[in-house]
Amino acid sequence: SPAGRCGGLEVHAQINTSTKLFSASPVGFSAPPNSLVSFFDASLPGTLPVLNKQCVEAAVKTGLALHCSINTKSFFDRNTTFIKNRYACSFQAGYQITQQRRPIAVDGMLTYSLLRGKKWNQVMRKCVHIKQIQLEQDSGKSLHDDVQSQTLIDLNRAGVGLMELVMEPDMCCGEEAAAAVRELQLILQALGTCQGNMSEGQLRVDANVSVHRPGEPLGVRTEVKNINSIRYLAKAIDFEIQRQIDVLQRGGTVFNETRAYDSKSGETIPMRDKEGLQDYRFMPEPNLPPLVVYVDEASLPAGIDASQAVLVEKIKEALPELPSLKRDRLVQTYGILPEHSYTLVNEDGLVEFFEAVLKATTKEPRKVIGWVTNELLGHLKQQDLSVSQSLVSPSALAELLELQEMGHISSSAAKQVFQEMTRSSGKTALHIIQEQDLGLVSDSDQLHNICQRVVDSHPNEVHAIRSGNKKVLNKLMGLVQKETKGRADPVLVRTILQEKTL
Ligand SMILES: Nc1ncnc2c1ncn2[C@@H]1O[C@H](COP(=O)(O)OP(=O)(O)OP(=O)(O)O)[C@@H](O)[C@H]1O
Ligand SMILES: [Mg+2]
Ligand SMILES: [Mg+2]
C-alpha cells in the first residue's frame, strides 16, 4: 500500500500595503463593490502599471526572513491561462501579471515545530523548503447570481499585491502543513508584510497532495485550491491522502486535477473547470522593466537615488524579532519550558496576557505559566473564545494568584475560584472567596478533628503508612481536602496526619 505522502503548499499572502501592486488605488476589505478601482485596475486602454515599491520591500523582507536568496534582477510575466477558464472575468485585462521566469526570492527554508507526546511536551523540529516567492496581482471576485443568471464582478481586490510562496512537497500530513502555515502566518505578522487574517482572505493556501509506494517516485498530485482556514487545511490534506490511497487500492488512477474542500461534508470535490489539464501560457510583461533591487548603498550605480532604491542589506538589518527568537527569549527570561513558549507564541495575545499577569504578581513565572496555558487557555478553548475575549483579565488572574501566593487559599481552592471567575465576569477573586467561603482553613483544632475522623475510618491505609508505605499519606491528605472542599492548609494537614500515623 502507498506509504509516501507528499504535500507541497502554495500560499498566497496579501501584501500589507495601503495601495495596490501596480496602481495607486487603496486596498481595503469591506468597501462597497468596485469602489477601490483605478483605470489601470479596470484595464482601460492607455493605462500602464507603476510598480509599488512597498510591495517589493515586503517581498524582500519576507524572503530574507525565510532564508531565501534574493534575485537582484527579476522579471514580470503575463499569465494568460486565465482567459480560458472561469477566472477569465476576474482579470479584466485577460491576464495576470506574475513572476514566472525569475521570481524575486528563491531557495528558502521555513522551520516549524510539532508538539507531540501524551502531554504535548515533546517539541519536534521540522523544515520545509521554499522554492520561490513571486510577486503577483490578486484577481477580482466574480459572483454568479443564479436567479437572474448573471455574473457580477467586484474589482476591489483586483491588482492587490500578493506574494505567492511555493513550498517543496516536504510535508506528509495535515498536521505538518497546519503547523507550517501557522508558523508562516506568525512570521508574516511579525514582519508586518501580511496581516495574515485567513477569514478575510489575506492568506490563502492551495494544497498539492500525492501518495506513492515506498521506493517509487512521487505520485500524481491533485491540488486542493483556496483553503482559508488552518483547521480546514489539515482536514483537506488528510482527507485527500486517504481518498487517493483508496483509489489506488481499488486499482484506480489518481488524476492531476484541481479540487475544492467542502467544510460541511469534510470532503474534497473536483472543481468543474479542467484547469489542471490546461497548458500554461506565459509571456514577458512588455509594460514593465526588470525588477531591480540592490545589495547595499555601495552597490548603487551612479545616478540612482538611494531613497528610491530597494536595498537588501538595509532591509536585513531592520528585520524584527521573529517567533522562533521570541520563544527562545521567553524560555531564557522566564525559565519556562520550550513547549510552553510554543503555546504562548502560537496563541494570539497570550504572551502579552502572560507578561501582564507577571507584572501584577510576585508569583514566579514558572508557576504562573501553568495557570495561563492550562486553566486560562483550557477554559478559552472550551468556550471557543480568543484571548482578547477572555472574561478574566490579567490583573484579575494576578490578584487570585497573589492570594494563593500569600497563603490565603489553597491551590485547589484557587482553581475553583478561577472557574467561578470565568462564569461571573466582574467578580473579584476576593469577593468569590468570601462569598463561597473558600478561604484557607488553618484552624488547628478543626483540622485535627477532620484528620482524626479520616484516620479512624481508614485503618488499612494507616497500617500501610506505619509499615513504611509513606505515599499512602497522600491519599489521606486527599480525603481531608475532600471534606474541606480543597480549602485545608496542606502543610498543616500533612504535619497533623504524620503525627497521627506515627
Ligand atoms: N508529486 C507531488 N506531490 C505533492 N506536491 C507536489 C508534487 N509535485 C509538485 N508539488 C507541489 O505543487 C506545487 C506546484 O506549484 P507551482 O506554483 O509551481 O505550479 P502550479 O500549481 O502548476 O501552478 P499555479 O501557481 O497556477 O497553481 C508546489 O508547491 C510543489 O511543491
Ligand atoms: Mg503556484
Ligand atoms: Mg498550484
Automatic annotation (TrEMBL):
GO terms for biological process: glutaminyl-tRNAGln biosynthesis via transamidation; mitochondrial translation. It catalyses: L-glutamyl-tRNA(Gln) + L-glutamine + ATP + H2O = L-glutaminyl-tRNA(Gln) + L-glutamate + ADP + phosphate + H(+); L-aspartyl-tRNA(Asn) + L-glutamine + ATP + H2O = L-asparaginyl-tRNA(Asn) + L-glutamate + ADP + phosphate + 2 H(+). It comes from the Eukaryota. InterPro entries: Asn/Gln-tRNA_amidoTrfase_suB/E (IPR017959), Asn/Gln-tRNA_Trfase_suB/E_cat (IPR006075), Asn/Gln_amidotransferase (IPR018027), Asn/Gln_tRNA_amidoTrase-B-like (IPR003789), GatB (IPR004413), GatB_Yqey_C_2 (IPR023168), Gln_synth/guanido_kin_cat_dom (IPR014746). Residues 352-501 form the Asn/Gln amidotransferase domain. GO terms for cellular component: glutamyl-tRNA(Gln) amidotransferase complex; mitochondrion. It is found in: Mitochondrion. One of its GO terms (molecular function) is glutaminyl-tRNA synthase (glutamine-hydrolyzing) activity. Keywords: ATP-binding, Ligase, Mitochondrion, Nucleotide-binding, Protein biosynthesis. It holds the Pfam family GatB_N. Its EC number is 6.3.5.-. Allows the formation of correctly charged Gln-tRNA(Gln) through the transamidation of misacylated Glu-tRNA(Gln) in the mitochondria. The reaction takes place in the presence of glutamine and ATP through an activated gamma-phospho-Glu-tRNA(Gln). NCBIfam families: gatB, PRK05477.1-2, PRK05477.1-4. Subunit of the heterotrimeric GatCAB amidotransferase (AdT) complex, composed of A (QRSL1), B (GATB) and C (GATC) subunits. Belongs to the GatB/GatE family. GatB subfamily. HAMAP family: GatB. This is Glutamyl-tRNA(Gln) amidotransferase subunit B, mitochondrial. It comes from Gouania willdenowi (Blunt-snouted clingfish).
